[in-house]
Amino acid sequence: MKWNHNSILGFTDDETVMLDFDETPFKTVKYWSQVAMTHFGLGGFLILKSSENHYHVVFNRRVDWAENMSVVAWVSLQSNNQGMLRYLRMQCIKKSSTLRIGPKGEKPSPRIVYREEKEDAQIKEYLETRKFLKKQGDALRAQI
Amino acid sequence: MVKRLSVYDDYETTKWVIMKQRSWIKRRDRVWQRYWYKTRVKVTVEESGRYEFYGRGRDLSRAVRLAHHYMPKGYVEVEARDFIENPEEYGVQGEWIWREVES
User: Is A51 on the interface with B (CB under 8 A)?
Assistant: First the structure.
């Protein structure tokens, strides 16, 4: 997805569990996503590659804000991921989770690299928003 | 369905700032005395901001396009329709900065 904006576009939600793994290999990301899904019964997940060794994870089950932060805090502590701890703090300040959807500088939009189990709830919503933003990108490109 | 979107990054905008300017005055005893006076100067500043839009698809689409021209005044959480109706209340005119990023 290309974007004429120099600004960054993100998907925001407080009922979707989203994780941001920085400087983490894919195998580790997949492992912790599976562990979190089993431990909290999150139904399914989607892994997106943001850039080399940077991944985003979106889980399927709808949760409330308290449970959402509980999952993120649990994964960041268990995996000892400092980047995710910083992400957790930022989301707590904003009171909602955000993951980048559009490009950032020279980096392209995150692309889907792995899917597991169900995609009928929050993942569906995430993918719809992603599709919607892609259309916006095309419209803006035509406009500018 | 109500969706939520974020638009964020660093931007450049012009701002009026009060600065001190040096000047000289010739006194009656013919000594040049330096003094400072305050003046308003227009400067280009680099700031960062964030829009948190919520609303329906069509409104969000228009809000995102408007966000291309109006830079957020800090952290702005606003309904897309309110932003479309009155963008000057929530943003200032400027330009988003294109820069290379590491993460």
Answer: yes
Ramachandran bin of A93, using left for φ above 0, alpha for ψ from -120 to 50, beta for the remaining angles: alpha
Domain A10-136 adopts which CATH fold? Answer: Alpha-Beta Plaits (3.30.70)
CA pair distance A86, A99, nearest whole angstrom: 14
What pTM was estimated for this model as a whole? Answer: 0.77
* Interval A100-126: pLDDT, tens: 888 887 788 889 999 988 888 889 988
The CA–CA distances, whole Å, from B3 to A29, A92, A115, A129, B38 equal 27, 20, 23, 8, 47
Nearest-CA residue of chain B relative to A16?
B4
The tokens of A96 are what? Answer: 């909602």
Q: Which of A129, A124, A110 is nearest to A44 (CA)?
A: A124
Number of other CB atoms surrounding residue A61 within 10 Å:
20
Say if the Cβ atoms of A5 and B5 lie within 8 Å. Answer: no
Domain boundaries, chain A: 10-136
* A85 interfaces chain B, CB cutoff of 8 Å: no
